Amino acid sequence: MLTKAYIPYRGYYSTPFCKWQGSLANENAIELGAQTSKRWFESKGIDQKKEIEYLYLGITVGQHRVFFGSTWAAFLMGAPDIPGMTIMQACSTCTTTVFNACSAVETGNVETAYCLLVDRCSNSPHTVWPNPMGPGGEVIHENWFMDNVAADPSTGFGMLITAENVAKENGFTREQADELVWIRYEQYAQALANDRAFQKRYMFPVEVKVSRKETRLIDADEGVTATSKEALARLRPVAEGGIHTFGAQTHPADGNAGIIVTTKERAKALSADPNIPIQVVSYGFARTKKAFMPMAPAPAARMAMERAGVTVKDMVSIKNHNPFIANDLYLAKDLGIDPASINNYGSSLVYGHPQAPTVARLLIEAIEEAVIKGGGYALVSGCAAGDTAAALVVKVG
After folding, report:
1. 330 pLDDT exceeds 90?
2. Would residue 209 count as lying in a domain?
3. Whether the model pTM is above 0.90
4. Is residue 249 part of a domain?
5. C-alpha to C-alpha distance for 280 and 261, rounded to whole angstroms
6. Beta strands 388-396 and 376-384: pairing type?
7. Containing domain of residue 311, as a range?
8. Helix, strand counts (H, E) of the chain
9. Does residue 331 lie in a domain region?
10. Is residue 52 part of a domain?
């Protein structure tokens, strides 16, 4: 259990998420994230050179100059003298990055840290290794994104298969899947109500170069597919005999997010409202049986809640990363809750999955939902490659 780590209210942002091969497809994710952070700090009136002591860079899909990672990002965001580290844990990258920052604050090693989460699934890099013993000197090569989504090297199974395994073992039906997917789209629509009032609580526009002389701001999600109950019902399962259509799974995306982690005193000073404390209370982790990835968030969530001394009934907001609708169906079944009660205001199933920033956005949305409800505990969980998962419990207000 953590006792000293806090997030300032509105001491965070997420950019809109842009569709795969869309507006951010040619941007270096580290550069874009750092430059966006610099603009965000300036908009908040925060001097990052004086305020931030350490940078945690979360990234899962390599970019040019990733070797220098955090220190290069610090230079680009206007804090060139601070140290940092780079963290990679697939879809749990944000969860673990925030926990590392919290641990540093908890032990007194750092007073104020910044978590920068960046990724670009578009135009994924290709790594080439020499293979001098191969026939004809053929190289060994890997597409960072496509190859690893296609198959876990430990099992040989792709991520979709893990979702179908969970669905089959638990008896989830195509009808259940379609019904819950439609609910997820309705929840996302709530975030768009009143001129996107909910999203504007935290969303910060990303600036993209169109040419040497022209830039444009992207201030809303790009790539959310309009649908209906009837349209979802007409889609064919991706895997024969499965319950997941293209509507029942997420889509790759691009974006970035930032979160300040600090002490209670500094959080109050940096907060948009010092009367809204946000304490990071606990972290949980798990690994489930092989090729059953969507089951992992449940034990991770249970660990986080047990360490916090709370139960699911204490939660005013629950957000679960849902690359597949089976993730939500299983978490709800395991925790004994209504699947329609979680992921209010949107989820990665709908607005996309740019890897490291995904759970950052879920965490931010969970905080904002808790604020709207007058405060309380929020749970954020999500699976990751290798049948793993991580979760956080935060206390708002």
Report:
1. yes
2. no
3. yes
4. no
5. 9
6. antiparallel
7. 159-201+277-396
8. 13, 14
9. yes
10. no
